[in-house]
Amino acid sequence: MPMNSINKCKVCVFDLGGTLMEYKNMPYSWVGYYEKAFQFVSDEFNLNLTKTDIEKSCEIMKSKNARVVYREIEYTPEDIFVEVTEHWNSKVDISEIINNFFKGIELKSIIYDDTVDCLKRLKDSGIKIAVLTDLPTAMPDELFKKDIADLLQHFDLYVSSQTCGFRKPNRYGLLQIAEHFNIDVNKLVFIGDEEKDINTAKNSGCVSVLINRGKTRDFGQGFTITSLRGLVEFYG
Fold it and tell me: Alpha-carbon distance 77 to 98, whole Å?
């Protein structure tokens, strides 16, 4: 694929987790942290959930995890937690349960060292910046945005699986972004760190860039970079 297939594109779309930031020491799937999080909620609100209660909730959450059970349609956090807590006999507001569930996981967000400089340099070159991210299972947008607050000012458009209603590799998010900027979808560049990111780009017909941060992987991407500085170099 010729280099000018990138530098002719004036909108760069980024994945977030593993591409621009990460949650420290967290794997792709958070299933192993569910029990801890539900126990935190139980303790916080004196719910006295039994081991059986928590195990049942963990299994329901697991069944909603798109990394465990494939799905492209997104569920709202409220719908998931209503089902997860149905057997609790709890009167605690669902929003409070959701907030404390993620508080119990003790997440720490880290912005990669090359992220802000890359975004600034691309914007200085006249490139529009958009984001397309799949939210962690049942995490509300407002909670996630708090963890990336330092990045939001650099985006011209933020699209998540919650705002568009679909998870990658469904192409709807990229189509929505292209419509927002009034361009053909094949004029987008999509940069991500996972196979589903590359497949999303392929499903949409846009240019795909895989960022390999310390890993060597081939998902049939159009281009490969090892840091975001490599992307800036395409634009001179």
Answer: 8
